[in-house]
Structures are given as C-alpha cells and as structure tokens.
Write a structure and sequence with these properties.
The chain is of the alpha/beta class. 45% of the residues lie in helices and 16% in strands. The mean pLDDT is 93.
Amino acid sequence: MYISLVVPFFNSAHKCKRLLKRLPEITSNDLEVILVDDGSTDDTYSVLSDLKCRLPQANITILRQQNKGTGGARNLGLSVATGQYVWFVDSDDDITTDALIFIKQNCDQQYDFIDFNIIRSGTTPINRMNVAAGSYRDSHEVRQILLDSGFIYQTCKAFRREFLLDHHIHYPEYCYYEDIPLAFTLPFLVTSFLKTNIVGYLYHQEFDSITRGKTTQKSLDRLYTSVCGLMDGLAFAKTDAEVNVIKERFIQLYLIDSVEMYFSITPRKEWTTIWRIMSQYRRLAKQFSISLNPFHLINKKSQQYKLYFRMQWMMSFILINDQASYFEGIRKKEWGF
C-alpha cells in the first residue's frame, strides 16, 4: 500500500457525501481507506457500511469506537494502517486524484511528509508552508521552516507512516483542536519534506465545524491542547530562540485566539470566560517563565479591538483563583469521561 486514507466521522451522514462520492473514483489495490465512526448517533455507520458493500473490490476498512474526538479516531486508524504514507482527511472535505498520483510517484523517496496546496470554497490555491515547491532535506533548514510556518494546518499533508510510528506520534483524545500539540513538536522531529504546488486538499465550508461554526463549550478545548503543546514543545526546544517561538505560539493559541472567539463590544455573559482565560494564562505564564509581552501579538488588530483586549485584561484581575479545575470540569462534562 502506498497510502492509507484515515477519515474520522462523527454524525456525518448529512455532510460526508462529497468525500464518499470520491472514494469509488480513487480505489485501487495499492490504496487503503480506513473509515472511523467516532461514536455517531445518526446514520453515519449505515452510510459507511453501504459504501463498503457497494465497493467489494476496494480496500475499505470500517472501524467503530465510542466518541473520543477526531484525535481518538485518527489514532485508531493509524494503529491499523499499512500504507507507506498516511493522510488524515476530514469527512466534510475532499482530496484530489492528482495528489494521490503524486504521492504514489514519490513515496519511495521517504520524505517525512508531502505537503499540498489547499483550496477553500471558491478561492485560489493556498500554500500553507509559504515555501517554494521542491525537496527539503537539510534538517536545520527544515526545522526553521516548520517553526516559522506554524505547522497548524496538517490535513494538507500526507505523513510517512514509519515516521509517525517511530516517534510515537499520537493525537490527544476527548478534545477538539487536536492538531495543536503537533504544531509544537513536529518541527523538531521532521528532517525532510517534499513541497508541491499541486492542489491536494479541498476545504469546504458549507457545514459548521468546531473551527468554523458557533462557539460552544467544546471550543475551550483549545486551552487544553495548547498547554499540551507548550509542555511537549519546551521539552524539544534547544535554543533560546526556539524556546521563544514555542512560548509565542502558546500565547497566540491559548490567549489571543481564545479571547477572540468571544469578542463582543457590548457586555455579555461570555466576558467572564474571557476573564477566566486571561487569569489562567497569567498563572501559566508564571509557571513556564513566559515573559513575552502578549500585547505585541495584537498590534495588527484594529484600534477598537486593542482597546477591548486591554480593557478585558484589566477586568480579569478581579479573578484571583486558579481556573484550571473550572476548564477541566467543562471538558469532562462535555466529553463524558
């Protein structure tokens, strides 16, 4: 097998038809499709089973587990994958045949990952790596590129399976924003990658998801995965410059991006959540010796937003207690563990 496609599904019966329509077009003896039903309560499992029945000649495996989140579903899929490369694809998005052909042509070159351009609905191709197409095998250059790029967007990358296994890569479970921790650690583990300008991933936006739908309690999972990433990233960082990159990434993901989810000029009850986030951030900043000024990360925001952020920052000092148990309590309640 040159590639294993691992696709998590959770209550996806109404939004996975595009990808399932693509599968008959790409099935072959050397391509493996692993469909993971992550505890769906709708007709998702029946839809997947029907697909497998209609394609008896295809290498399709259907797995089923209790709801653990996309990370748990990816981990399960990876544990049974046999392809040289593994591509984690979201059920409501799509991939291209050009990308699969390119992987097949280059899989024997043993790059740690192959990166493709993406297209959001109706847009021009986007290069998430911000580097020219080509081969990158200088480990020092690779590390710097990945630290600079942020490495948050991983669905446009096909990873070499042995690379993932050798480094014991796994996604956090019982949470959303499962990609965040790897954004902190993979830059220190990857030694080579192949960048192509081929559009490989089609990112669709007509359905809500945790990253493009309304803010819910599970949106606070970003805090949990950001802390996981910070701890893992600091363990790998070797220089002061690398440590600063990890800490700045944490500030952006834990503090700036989380606060922006609840942005509102008019007072509302979610402001107390902002204060909790800011209060807990200061505790974590002290714990991990983060002295970087968070305000410089909002310099490009509007003047109105900067005033709003500073006002919330000052208001958050009314909370003096540790907020860790509060946020962990929400996560346990939402995921039921």
